[in-house]
Amino acid sequence: MMRTRPLKVALLGCGVVGSEVARIMTTHAEDLTARIGAPVELAGVAVRRPSKVREGIDPALVTTDATALLKRGDIDVAIEVIGGIEPARALIHTAFEHGISVVSANKALLAQDGAALHAAADAAGLDLYYEAAVAGAIPLVRPMRESLAGDKINRVMGIVNGTTNFILDKMDSTGAGYQEALDEATALGYAEADPTADVEGYDAAAKAAILAGIAFHTRARLDDVYREGMTEVSAADFASAKRMGCTIKLLAILERAADGQSVTARVHPAMIPLSHPLASVREAYNAVFVEAEAAGRLMFYGPGAGGAPTASAVLGDLVAVCRNKLAEATGPGESAYTQLPVSTMGDVVTRYHISLDVADKPGVLAQVATTFAEHGVSIDTVRQQGKDGEASLVVVTHRAHDAALSGTVEALRKLDTVRGVDSIMRVEGE
Ligand code: NDP
Ligand code: HSE
């Protein structure tokens, strides 16, 4: 039976994502009504600059007082697409205090304060949905939270930042330098005026924290995720990667420890073989590879950013939350029962590609090899190229603990014959 009284929606934020949410709500109103079983009405739009012209938005709906909009008593669902920590956090709490379920795209807030937000939603018997917070349009949060709820996820590895994938793809395919590729990403609207959150890996780390919590039914915050940006990746690194049949991607990697007692969460550039499915993810696309005990290997792929793709995920959540409202039910809340701790980076086990600038004289190779051996790091391959009394030495290791590799590099830096450690990159996906 179709309900005639509409469900009222407060849109908090009407920028890149919010404006597309409003557009789709209007243009697809009939379909949304049929799918939900009741009409949904855009009842108010909170923004910072009320005088800005917003196509398709009735100016009478626009307000700068988001709190008053939530408190006025007739709102059923709030869509938070403001971003950042405050006022988004306070507004979401206000929504819950007033019986309003929330859809949010805010990865920064969820990675910092997800536990408190979930607790508040739970205590109020309301929904908190956030599909758009990770990997834009790609259905990933709901499949991991619901479709894989009966399985055991052991590993998640993904490209979850479109801007950095675009930059690395350009560097790889055209030989462009980092700055040139960043400038192109900015010109095309992928990178923001201040690209720090993307290129330094904060955006990917926030998404990694959210995914780690869902994958391992535990709690992970932004601070738990080891993070390295991609600003140091050079043309020489890409040349080395090519020689190994690899490319370089900024990866988010979440792993359950072999003993099952802890997990690790990290974001850093890494070499991956060209044969790996993630190697063929081009431009600003995202892809996430999930390894589950019974399901095996699953790959989720698609646009990870942009107004319309992200709005698609927000609208999917809106439909789910509205259906729950009509059924007087709520969807799944936070599942953090395992309470598995997140280990430090030193506990991660992987392979490494190390490029050294050394003196080209007898005994140097032996000295370098001994240093690796003394730290328990086994060498897989060594390649040396000499010129004018100096040599470039590229060492690829077998799997070793990150702590052991760090110790090795510290010792190598102290050797008189090692003039510099040019680059250290992890090798994944083999
Ligand atoms: P924008 O900066 O484009 O939009 C932010 C909106 O919030 C603007 O409409 C702004 O108003 C409004 N706003 C800012 N401060 C306030 C305030 N104090 N009260 C009311 N409204 C306010 O951000 P995006 O649309 O790009 O991002 C929104 C969210 O979606 C973020 O959490 C982001 O991480 C997430 N996201 C974004 C993606 C993307 O591709 N852009 C992809 C995936 C997630 P005004 O218009 O007046 O300036
Ligand atoms: N800046 C982010 C990216 C937006 O480039 O992927 C999507 O979260």
Description:
With 430 residues, the protein is α/β, with parallel strands linked by helices. The chain folds into 3 domains: 7-136 and 308-327, Rossmann fold; 141-303, Dihydrodipicolinate Reductase, domain 2; 345-427, ACT domain (Alpha-Beta Plaits), CATH 3.30.70.260. It contains 14 helices and 17 strands. It has helices spanning 16-27, 29-36, 66-71, 88-97, 107-124, 141-147, 162-174, 178-187, 196-199, 202-216, 235-243, 307-326, 364-374, 402-414, and strands at 7-12, 40-46, 62-63, 77-80, 101-104, 128-129, 153-159, 226-227, 246-256, 263-273, 285-292, 296-303, 349-359, 379-387, 390-397, 400-401, 418-427. Strands 7, 8, 9, 10, 11, 12, 13, 14, 15, 16 and 17 form an 11-stranded mixed β-sheet that branches. A hairpin with a 3-residue loop joins strand 11 and strand 12. Helix 4 packs parallel to helix 5 and helix 13 runs antiparallel to helix 14. The longest helix is centred in the C-terminal third of the chain and has 20 residues, at 307-326. It is elongated. The model has no long low-confidence stretch (mean pLDDT 96). The site of L-homoserine (HSE) has 8 residues, from helix 7.
**Strand-pairing-aware structural class:** alpha/beta
Helix content: 25-40%
How many β-strand stretches? 17
Radius of gyration, taken over Cα atoms and rounded to an integer in Å: 24 Å
What's the CATH H-level superfamily name of the largest domain?
Dihydrodipicolinate Reductase, domain 2
Within the CATH hierarchy, at the fold level, what is the topology of the largest domain? Dihydrodipicolinate Reductase, domain 2
**Structural domains: how many:** 3
Shape estimate: elongated
So, CATH architecture of the largest domain? 2-Layer Sandwich
Extract low-pLDDT stretches. none
